[in-house]
Amino acid sequence: MNQSMNIRIQSPSPSLLLPPAKCSSRWRCPCLRVQLETCASSNLSKMSLISRGSSAWCKIQPMFNESLTKMYSSQIEVLVTSRAQEVSDTPAVGDDKIGVLLLNLGGPETLEDVQPFLFNLFADPDIIRLPRLFRFLQKPLAKFISVARAPKSKEGYASIGGGSPLRQITDAQAEELRKALSEKNVLAKVYVGMRYWHPFTEEAIEQIKLDRITKLVVLPLYPQFSISTSGSSLRLLESIFREDEYLVNMQHTVIPSWYQREGYIKAMADLIEKQLTNFDRPKEVMIFFSAHGVPVAYVEEAGDPYKAEMEECVDLIMEELEKRRINNAYTLAYQSRVGPVEWLKPYTDDTIIELGRKGVKSLLAVPISFVSEHIETLEEIDVEYKELALKSGIEKWGRVPALCCEPTFISDLADAVIESLPYVGAMAVSNLEARQSLVPLGSVEELLAAYDSQRRELPPLVTVWEWGWTKSAETWNGRAAMLAVLVLLVLEVTTGEGFLHQWGLLPLFR
């Protein structure tokens, strides 16, 4: 995952509409259903800023936060669909043209897209961290891994309709957000920028420049901040902004996380409450929050706030449910781990098995870190984890759909954007001269951890060697195997011969 560092992000609290596509019923996403509806206006939430250190949280009201003077200095905005809005329609407030940039991961839209999508993913140095000496092997290694993993990944995408619905959903979210802002008397263009697939962030930036946007709100569609998701996207934006005079002069602000917003919490509670009614005995259902995992080292050594934000998010949702007299048992686990390293625990699959052993008969899965349906909800949760649950003795299984275009959620995102507008450019101090980082830097007490000014690499995922048949020993065996692979790749590159060239995987090095 991320090759990043101890950065700290100051946190103000926290898509486009495509024609209805072939949408598998398994998506269970309300986005396309509400394309022609108007998002309900709501003043549900007050925006709070959260700064988190290693030991304490500090909640601050945004309008009076003096610590925001170090706020973000570059700017961005993303590509809504070119057909959705004309440049002449670029909204303005006074002399300013307002834009909102939604950031997301992206996903292959067809089976032919799977391998190049995986290549883009693994070519990111924040995903696969090679030693500095071997950085030149980043793309050859990404090519090798993407080709090797593509067949298995294609099976997964084929099972959910032949591609990811993420772009369609994000585009729909962008359009609904634009409508909600308009209803709240804020005219803005909303752009979508994906990290690893179309529309790429770079494409969105070009559209923003063409539209001559002057004020931009950057809104990652990840409720909780992590250096491996929002952090990676912001780091890319930083590199784009640094060398572009137009972007350097464009005022902007970033909403790094928004999991604590009242509207988001209420929307999640609404979905859970609704799904509980599908069980014969709703009060006996275990509410099972499943979040995407990150390596333990990101949290313990790099200061990633993801785990703390996730736990607080779950607590806030359960507090909201308790207000509605819903007092079900609940638990939180982490899914989607890869590689021979320690990830955040407990693991989703292990937890499901354990709950079955303890006699839990009804389980309601809640994909807590996702706001859109994609491969990890539609295939990993709906297929793999459901099968595991039934085999483990759990008799009744349910799953809360992703928020997608849920009106309360979209309306609250609009409120977050509106609340952030007074900060757009307000904290930028001589951007052109200072060339400050997009991600602000500061002390542990003031900023959320992600990178530091030195851009040091993340700490090793396993740091202690232990003799014997241990997890550490197995990890070091894995490292030895990786080193052997790197040596073979070096030989391939230097000699121009080998099985990768024979297979045509490294044609550039012939």
Question: Stretches where pLDDT falls below 50 for ≥5 residues?
Answer: 1-90, 427-468
Strand percentage: 5-15%
CATH architecture of one domain: 3-Layer(aba) Sandwich
Structural class: alpha/beta
Termini separation: 30 Å
CATH topology of one domain: Rossmann fold
Beta strands, count: 13
Shape descriptor reads globular
Mean pLDDT: 75
Helicity range: 25-40%
Output the helix-strand order: EEEEEHHHEHEHHEHEHHEHEHEHHEHH
EC number: 4.98.1.1
Subcellular location: Plastid, Chloroplast
Protein name: Ferrochelatase
Main location: plastid
Describe the structure.
The chain has 510 residues and is of the alpha/beta class. Among the domains are: 262-399, 3-Layer(aba) Sandwich (Rossmann fold); 471-509. Helix content is 37%, strand content 12%. It has 15 helices and 13 strands. The strands form 4 sheets. Strands 4, 5, 6, 7 and 8 form a 5-stranded mixed sheet that branches. A 4-stranded parallel sheet has the order 10-9-11-12, sandwiched between helices. α11 (375-391) links the parallel β11 (362-367) and β12. α1 (114-122) packs across α2 and α7 runs antiparallel to α12. The chain is globular and about 70 Å long.
What are the SSEs and their pairings?
Blueprint: E1 8-9, E2 49-52, E3 57-60, E4 92-93, E5 96-104, H1 114-122, H2 138-159, H3 166-183, E6 189-194, H4 201-210, E7 215-220, H5 230-242, H6 245-249, E8 251-254, H7 262-276, E9 286-292, H8 296-300, H9 306-323, E10 330-335, H10 348-357, E11 362-367, H11 375-391, E12 396-399, H12 407-420, H13 431-434, E13 448-449, H14 471-495, H15 499-502
Parallel strand pairs: 5-6, 5-7, 7-8, 9-10, 9-11, 11-12
Antiparallel strand pairs: 1-13, 2-3, 4-5
Helix pairs in contact: 1-2, 3-12, 7-9, 7-12
